[in-house]
Amino acid sequence: MAIKRSEFPENFIFGTATSAYQIEGAVNEDGREPSIWDVFSHTPGKIQNNENGDVACDHYHRYNEDVQIMKEIGFNGYRFSISWPRVLFSNQKKNQKGLDFYNKLVDTLLENNITPFITLYHWDLPYYLYEKGGWLNPDIALYFQDYAALMFEILGDRVKHWITLNEPWCSSYLGYFMGKHAPGHTNIQETIIAAHNLLRAHGYAVKIFREIVKDGIIGITNVVSKIEPAKESEENFQAAILVDEIVNGWFHDPIIFGKFPENAKGLFKQLGLEIPETDMDIISQPIDFFGVNYYTRQLVEYDPTSPYLYKNVEGILPKTEMGWEIYPEGLYDMLRKIHRRYGLPLYITENGMAGPDKLQNDIINDDYRVKYLEKHFEKALEAIEDGIDLRGYFVWSLLDNFEWEKGYSKRFGIVYVDYKTQKRYLKKSAVWLKEFLRK
Ligand SMILES: OC[C@H]1NNC[C@@H](O)[C@@H]1O
Fold it and tell me: Where is the active site (predicted)?
């Protein structure tokens, strides 16, 4: 029996999500200053096909058309991020033209009965702050607080749902340890410091939010993978617990319990790493929800030859174009785990897949994405029926867009973008969603 929208709570938010650098383009327009992703994407060899976000989906100019597409599909929520270097100059003066873009976007969403959910930071750190140390400089929390306060003051009268950071694990591990993301460092000690300053910035923003937007809610979005032992053994179970603490617990526990998870902390200390723990009181200020970005599981095995005592193992399930196993069961498991451990309301702030989408005679037959969404919707509904306080689900993503180090090679959109013409085409999955959201 196909799942129906009417099986979800009446006030459940079904939305879609994007981020500024991945869709806006107009990187040199109206005074926008460079971010670390502008510099990183223009560094030869960093991005597949040496692509960048200079034009992307040209959303800066086409936002009205894109909102109309959301309206046509029937979404009642839209999660997007603010481009920090578009709204604040390096001299700390506000960029009114940049702010006006977001004012117009918010007003257009509200006119179309679409609730805006704003992410303050989705990785595009102003480059001048990187030159001051970026996420390695403790002062970054104060810069972030000033930026957050500006956005709360400008948009807080109309926007009541806020997310401080998107996926601090990615900002720290992909940006400072694996070198795959901006700023492209490869230092585990820096990674730990950056993670701590990201959490501090989160806390400083929450603190000022309570003073400015008294009738709004604020949370943080983490990417969560279901960590499982590749083969059942005591050692592999222990490895899974450790990895779950490193990738998931490290960015949830401090916010709720005011401390880092013990096993992971013990491992890092054994490796001689400094674990900064200042401002845990600010980091652990109460928040209103966790955003959960879910894509797949991560299979691990104990590996005594690794300094981190584990290795990743390739799974056997069908995979998306990103090489990620399709594993909807993991969504249910992680919603239940996070809800039970931390007791907060949850939003699925991202879920979706990159597919081998081909435009043929103006049609994109992405049946695989329809099936993917249906299976994950079913798990979300199962979680709600089991008493988990899940309040919304945002499809990643509205449009095909700049998939970071993969450039434009991976299409996550339910709407196909022909980057040569910037024409938008509803994929079969968007048509399916349109019908689903009406039942
Ligand atoms: O990889 C797909 C998505 N994952 N979460 C963060 C987004 O910016 C990515 O495009």
Answer: 167 (proton donor), 350 (nucleophile)
